[in-house]
Amino acid sequence: MMDFPMARVIDEQACYDWLVELLHPDGLSCPRGHPVSMAGVHKRHRAPVLVYQCNGLDCRAVYCAFTGTMWQNTQWRPSEIVQLLAGVSQGKSSAQIAREIGKKRDHVMNRRHQLQGNAFEALPAFPPARSRLRSGRGVPERRRERHAARGS
User: Fold this and answer.
1) Each residue of 45-76: pLDDT tens digit?
2) Can you tell me whether residue 37 is helix, strand or coil?
3) How far is CA 63 from CA 19, 36, 38, 72, in A?
4) Handedness of CA 28, 30, 34, 37 (dihedral sign)
């Protein structure tokens, strides 16, 4: 199977913009809720990932787009994160994703497990409490009734 090292050709700014939109659908803001327009750029050393410092009243929070997410304190570039997300959603193995983005397989596997755990936690409770008892009877009772009807 051929590996495609897309991280070398993907636009970092476009990946960062997409991740900000994905992680902050209502817009990026400081952890205390002040809009990013109230902040100044604190650090640019990882461009396009900017670190902001809030200038709100009694706030001086320092944050970036990944603050409060599983990507907080990561050294991964936005293109590597996007490529991981794409690989996981396409069902690629952790080993293949690791080769494509130039990371260790166990690091990729750990991030994959974090993603899967977060997805599992976001699932709604199953089964919905009211849907299985609409007729006033539980599912096992209906099965017994069907089984008894077949036997008669």
Assistant:
1) 888 999 999 998 889 999 999 999 999 999 99
2) helix
3) 15, 10, 12, 9
4) negative
Both tokens assigned to 62: 């320092």
For residue 47, the model assigns a pLDDT of: 87
- In the chain, % helix, strand, coil (3-state, to 5) comes to 45, 10, 40
| 113 contacts 106 by C-beta, under 8 angstroms | no
**Sites in the chain below the pLDDT cut of 50:** 2
For residue 107, give every residue at least 6 positions away whose Cβ sits within 8 Å of its Cβ, in sequence order, or none.
Answer: 98
Omega before residue 128 within 30° of 0, cis: no
Q: How far is CA 50 from CA 36, 43, 59, 67, 144, in A?
A: 11, 6, 18, 11, 62
Please, which residues have CB within 8 angstroms of residue 20's CB and are 6 or more apart in sequence? 28, 65
Predicted pLDDT at 122:
86
Task: Give the pLDDT score at 141.
Answer: 59
